[in-house]
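Project outcomes to date are best conveyed with an example. Our students and postdoctoral researchers have been running inverse folding experiments weekly, and each run begins with a structure described purely in C-alpha cells. The record below, which covers 90 residues, was selected by the lab manager from last quarter's runs and is presented without edits.
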C-alpha cells in the first residue's frame, strides 16, 4: 500500500462517490448523511438554554457599573466646567 493510499484509508478520504467532493467533505463522507443522534436518557436542551451557554459573561462583576459611574461623574464635571466658563463670559 502506498503512502497516499494509507493516508486516504486513515482519514476516510477514499471510497465510492467521494472523489469529486472537497477535501473537508471527503474526510467525513462516511458520516455526513447520518441522522443526528438522539439520547434516550437525556432530554434535548431548549434553544434558549443552549444559547445561554455561549453568551458572554462578566468576569469582573460590577466592573461595567463602575465604568458607567465614572463616565457619569466625568460628564457632570465637564458640564460644570462649561457652565462656569459660560458664567465667566457674562
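After processing, the design step wrote out the following sequence:
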Amino acid at each position: 500500500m502506498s503512502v497516499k493510499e494509507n493516508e486516504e484509508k486513515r482519514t476516510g478520504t477514499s471510497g465510492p462517490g467521494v472523489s469529486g467532493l472537497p477535501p473537508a467533505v471527503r474526510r467525513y463522507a462516511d458520516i455526513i448523511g447520518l441522522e443526528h443522534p438522539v439520547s434516550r436518557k437525556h432530554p434535548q436542551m431548549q434553544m434558549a438554554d443552549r444559547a445561554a451557554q455561549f453568551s458572554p459573561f462578566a468576569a469582573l462583576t460590577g466592573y461595567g457599573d463602575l465604568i458607567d459611574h465614572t463616565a457619569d461623574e466625568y460628564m457632570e464635571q465637564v458640564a460644570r466646567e462649561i457652565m462656569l466658563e459660560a458664567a465667566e463670559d457674562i
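The mean pLDDT is 81. The radius of gyration is 31 Å. The training component of this project remains on track.
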